Amino acid sequence: xxxxxxxxxxxxxxxAGAVDPSTGHVVGPLDSIPxxxxxxxxxxxxxxQELIARFPQCTGPVGLAFPSVVVRGVTxxxxxxxxxxxxCDAAAVLRAASGGRPSFVVNDADxxxxxxxxxxAGRGEHGVVMMITFGTGIxxxxxxxxxxxxxxxxxxxxxxxxxxxxxxxxxxxxxxKLDWPAWCERVNKVLDRYHMLLWPDLFIVGGxxxxxxxxxxxxxxxxxxxxxxxxRQAAGVVGAALYAxxxxxx
Length: 250
Ligand code: BGC
Description:
28% strand; single chain; alpha/beta
């Protein structure tokens, strides 16, 4: 089975891993490179090229999890990245960085959700499942009986006159020095609004902060079940690779 390279662009680093698409497992260690300051298209392409060259064993397609609305490879928003990405053919940028390999770009929360639904906390879950990633921003991915509704972008939903991600992201917790009870009070409000809108059966809490779920999980409340992500750091990388594998086969 040829290995598929999964990439995940975050606020501080671009992570990469070789993924066996038949199992979703990362083969060998993850690698990373700092996200270029400002993350312009040109600088990001150069960083991707350098990172991709470290994985000669990956001969399959390439997938990139990216913090933007992504429709058929084109990025349409730029909340925490350079505005040059708006309307950019990001799949073409990735193709150029990978020397012409079949290249696929997917929203980062959607990628993490795809991985969780296939081999993580959402495995075997039916009904409405919502993955939420808490990081620099808030990302959301919505699944109905395992099928993704892409680009939900509910981190930008307004809560008390403020975008949810400006109110309760992991970054906001750090910047405002919120303790777990104070942060969870905000997250509960966000969960409540999402529940009112979409009535999910399950929330999967992801992003870096999910690694500390045992410290705050009991403070989170919703009418829906709440579980931590199962894949932790690798979710975006694995999801991007699985997404690329699936779409390359079409
Ligand atoms: C972006 C989303 C992304 C989320 C998490 C938001 O600011 O608009 O596309 O999924 O951050 O990175």
